[in-house]
């Protein structure tokens, strides 16, 4: 029984810590600037990095 | 019945030609299962006659398959003990197989005789033990109606009866049973007690009984070797039961935490209160054809807290203009006022200048936006092997952590294959708590709960099955 209490406490506190630190979520602001700037530098001139539209990804049934 | 008797029975030959019987199988179409099933049968190697589970020959041939675990039991022949003040000696044993089952479905009847010469039966089935004694009812009518038996005023449906076939007999039994011998049984409860009516060709016998624990049997028959194992088994099962309760409580706690986090979203107010439209359904041509593009700048609005998790939800407002068999792509950019102010050199209210900036936003050496989301909405129909279908995807949402509080704009680009009202795409931003890890550990606790629940019932140090 003690084992299950320890496992429960570890899991709950781990989940609480990950949630409160927002681990695993993408960052906006400085983190995004850094990532986007690096991506732009890595692109060859004139290749562009953004497709302005996708034409709707569509249902899997339509085979798109 | 001794070992020699069993050997003699196993030598039984085909009733038609005297040939040897062997194990075989037969395939036939089963109307209930609606498929072809294969069932075991005994078969004569000479005349090919088949004996199914309704014949004694079948049990002769398959007896080994139905008795391989005959020694996994708490009882043994010759055991002596005292139960509830009465002394007993185990003198014989019968194992029955349920006739309707092709798989092994057996139970053991251990026959004991008491000090005053009365027979007593200990029935062991699926790890449960019931103690039965012969009973003479005040009234019984086996043919009270075509479909039921009347037992002391209680109606027992004949359809609930089942046939048991003897597959093992050993010890000094009060009669001479034969392998494959059939007994029609009715089990029922009355006034909290278990009753069994057993009907053979020759007689009807009735027994009354109650459940016993393995601990009572081990104590009564003083089976010393099992006492510690039994106590350890009970202790461990109790421990697993407590573990399962703790994991169940943890699952509930996770659900409550998730619900609290989910319901605790705080919307950022006024995100769509003011807007500037730079482009409204302008046709854009490329190699794939013509699409319509709109560019709208919403804001500014205030995001009050930094280093927090935010959720953005973008969706088609079907009330403004429904998406009907068409597509619409969007690019959502969150832009900080200070960066926009720097880029426009303080002319942040110059709509034409802002229009130029956003027109060329992809050509800027440094990103202007603090975050970008790209998505598609679509509405489609078609036909496939299941017939007509009509599906759509009209909403998108995502989470991100924004480091700096302050004033922000949202720059929204829309692309569609038809002209669309720019107000048909709406968005909301809310401060959120996040709950994904509580959901993850909820499932971890669910697995742990399941495992400990199973272990609380199945953990066993004893060399026989025990269900209690």
Q: What are the segments of chain A in which pLDDT stays under 50 over at least 5 consecutive residues? A: none
Structural class of chain A: mainly alpha
Number of strands of chain A: 1
Tally of contiguous helical segments of chain B: 7
Helix content of chain A: 40-55%
Notes on the protein architecture:
The complex is a heterodimer of chains A (64) and B (468). Chain A has 2 helices and 1 strand; from the N terminus they run αβα. Chain A is mainly alpha-helical. Chain A has a domain at 1-43. The longest helix of chain A is centred in the N-terminal third of the chain and has 19 residues, at 2-20. With 468 residues, chain B is α+β, with helices and mostly antiparallel strands. Helix content of chain B is 23%, strand content 44%. Chain B is built from 7 helices and 25 strands. Chain B has helices spanning 3-10, 56-67, 214-220, 224-263, 337-343, 351-359, 436-458; strands at 21-30, 35-44, 50-51, 80-83, 86-98, 106-114, 119-125, 128-134, 140-141, 148-151, 154-157, 162-171, 182-190, 193-199, 204-212, 266-267, 275-286, 289-303, 308-316, 327-336, 369-384, 387-393, 395-402, 406-416, 425-432. Chain B has an 8-stranded antiparallel barrel. A 6-stranded antiparallel sheet of chain B has the order 17-18-24-20-21-22. In chain B, α3 packs antiparallel against α4 and α4 (224-263) runs antiparallel to α7. Chain B is elongated. Chains A and B meet through α1, β1 and α2 of A and α4, β20, β21, β22 and β23 of B. β1 (27-28) of chain A pairs parallel with β23 (395-402) of chain B, so a sheet runs across the interface.
Draw up the topology in text:
The complex is a heterodimer of chains A (64) and B (468).
Chain A: H1 2-20, E1 27-28, H2 30-42
Chain B: H1 3-10, E1 21-30, E2 35-44, E3 50-51, H2 56-67, E4 80-83, E5 86-98, E6 106-114, E7 119-125, E8 128-134, E9 140-141, E10 148-151, E11 154-157, E12 162-171, E13 182-190, E14 193-199, E15 204-212, H3 214-220, H4 224-263, E16 266-267, E17 275-286, E18 289-303, E19 308-316, E20 327-336, H5 337-343, H6 351-359, E21 369-384, E22 387-393, E23 395-402, E24 406-416, E25 425-432, H7 436-458
Antiparallel strand pairs in B: 1-2, 2-3, 4-5, 5-6, 5-12, 6-7, 7-8, 8-15, 9-10, 10-11, 12-13, 13-14, 14-15, 16-25, 17-18, 18-24, 19-23, 19-25, 20-21, 20-24, 21-22
């Amino acid at each position: 029984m003690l084992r299950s209490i320890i496992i429960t406490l570890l899991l709950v506190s781990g989940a609480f810590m990950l949630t409160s630190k927002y681990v695993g979520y993408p960052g906006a602001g400085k983190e995004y600037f850094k990532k986007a700037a690096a991506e732009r530098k890595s692109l060859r001139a004139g290749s562009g990095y953004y497709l302005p539209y996708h034409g709707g990804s569509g249902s899997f049934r339509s085979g798109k | 019945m001794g070992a020699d008797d069993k050997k003699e029975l196993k030598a039984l030959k085909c009733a038609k030609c005297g040939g040897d019987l062997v194990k075989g199988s037969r395939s036939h179409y089963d109307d209930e299962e609606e498929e072809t099933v294969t069932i075991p049968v005994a078969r004569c190697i000479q005349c090919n006659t088949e004996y199914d589970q309704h014949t004694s020959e079948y049990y002769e041939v398959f007896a080994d398959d139905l008795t391989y675990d005959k020694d996994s039991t708490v009882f043994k022949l010759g055991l002596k003990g005292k139960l509830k003040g009465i002394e007993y000696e185990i003198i014989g044993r019968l194992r029955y197989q349920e006739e309707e089952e092709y798989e092994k479905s057996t139970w053991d009847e251990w026959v004991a005789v008491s000090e005053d010469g009365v027979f007593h039966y200990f029935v062991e089935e699926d790890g449960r033990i019931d103690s039965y004694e012969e009973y003479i009812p005040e009234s019984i009518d086996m043919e009270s109606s075509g479909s039921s038996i009347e037992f002391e005023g209680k109606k027992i449906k004949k359809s609930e009866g089942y046939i048991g076939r003897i597959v093992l007999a050993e010890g000094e039994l009060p009669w001479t049973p034969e392998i494959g011998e059939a007994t029609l049984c009715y089990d029922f409860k009355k006034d909290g007690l278990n009753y069994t009516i057993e009907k053979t060709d020759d007689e009807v016998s009735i027994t009354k009984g109650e459940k016993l624990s393995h601990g009572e049997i081990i104590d009564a028959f003083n089976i010393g070797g099992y006492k510690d194992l039994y106590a350890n088994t009970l202790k461990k099962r109790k421990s697993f039961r407590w573990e399962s309760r703790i994991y169940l409580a943890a699952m509930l706690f996770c659900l409550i935490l998730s619900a609290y986090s989910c319901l605790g979203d705080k919307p950022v107010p006024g995100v769509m209160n003011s807007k500037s439209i730079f482009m409204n359904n302008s046709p854009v041509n490329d190699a794939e054809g013509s699409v319509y593009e709109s560019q709208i700048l919403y804001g500014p609005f205030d995001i009050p807290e930094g280093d927090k998790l935010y959720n953005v939800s973008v969706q088609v407002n079907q009330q403004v203009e429904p998406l009907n068999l068409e597509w619409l792509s969007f690019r959502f950019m969150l832009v900080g006022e200070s960066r926009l102010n720097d880029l426009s050199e303080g002319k942040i209210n110059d709509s034409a200048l802002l229009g130029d900036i956003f027109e060329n936003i992809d050509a800027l050496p440094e990103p202007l936006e603090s975050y970008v989301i790209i998505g598609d909405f679509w509405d489609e129909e078609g036909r496939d092997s299941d017939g007509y279908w009509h599906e759509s995807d009209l909403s998108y949402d995502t989470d991100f952590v924004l480091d700096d509080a302050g004033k922000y704009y949202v720059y929204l680009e829309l692309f569609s294959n038809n002209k669309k009202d720019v107000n048909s795409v709406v968005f909301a931003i809310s401060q959120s708590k996040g709950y994904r890890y509580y959901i993850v550990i909820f499932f971890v606790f669910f697995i742990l709960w399941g495992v400990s629940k199973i272990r609380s019932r199945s953990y066993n140090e004893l060399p026989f099955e025990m269900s209690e």
